[in-house]
Amino acid sequence: MLSSAVLRSWSVAYVVLVATHLGALLADADALADLTQCLVMPALAGVLAAATRWPRGRVVTWAFAALAASFLGDSLPRLLDGDAAFLAMVGCFLLAQVAYVVAFAPRVRRSVVRTAPGRLAAYAGVLVVLVAVCAPHAGALLVPVAVYGGVLTAMAVLATGLGRLGAVGGAVFLVSDALIALGRFVPGWDLAGHDVWVMLTYTVGQALLVVAVARDNRERRRVRPAPAREVRAARPPDNVVALVAARRGLQV
């Protein structure tokens, strides 16, 4: 009961922070928007901690690393300006995507890489189109942006190994970063409420990935065999078994 209450508390905190952040963006309340953006990933890490149990394993551990890198990507660029801020954000989120790739890699056999390889063409197509659209105006940033796009696409592909929630979460996260790239490198890009859409897809995508990771952890713990010492403890001693058998033989 306590763990459920803690999970609900962290979940409510995350939803409230996201809603407050989006409202601040709409109201042009920059200070509040900055503060809440720096708090959303720590709150989501609290959700993941409350939704999983020790030993958490590789998938959960690396998901925590991805959330930590995402927090840096949300906060560190605020200390910098211009291209330095953008590169800091790309660098931090590149680390986040690498962490997610490492986290999801053990589930590759359940992903579209094995179950539906034909769908890989769609992911590759999105990456090629996005890089092609951004390339004419990316300049010296083209290489880091292309590398980031490749790792981001790999994350989205491997996320399908965590089921439908993972697949949707990875795709929505990809959309969020694609919107950032379009807003940065495509002249004339004018999506109403651009920042709101970026943060909405970002927070929803991350939340879906965390839920998928938590479900994966729960499923793995459910099917995990009991330790050998517990199995031995559950068995009656051999002499007891022999005694019971002997008594049954006398009764017959």
TrEMBL record:
One of its GO terms (molecular function) is hydrolase activity. It comes from the Bacteria. The chain crosses the membrane at residues 7-26, 86-108, 120-139, 145-162, 167-185, 197-214. It is a multi-pass membrane protein. Its main location: membrane. It is found in: Membrane. One of its GO terms (cellular component) is membrane. InterPro entries: TMEM86B-like. Keywords: Membrane, Transmembrane, Transmembrane helix. PANTHER family: GH04784P (PTHR31885:SF6). Belongs to the TMEM86 family. This is Lysoplasmalogenase. It comes from Cellulomonas uda.
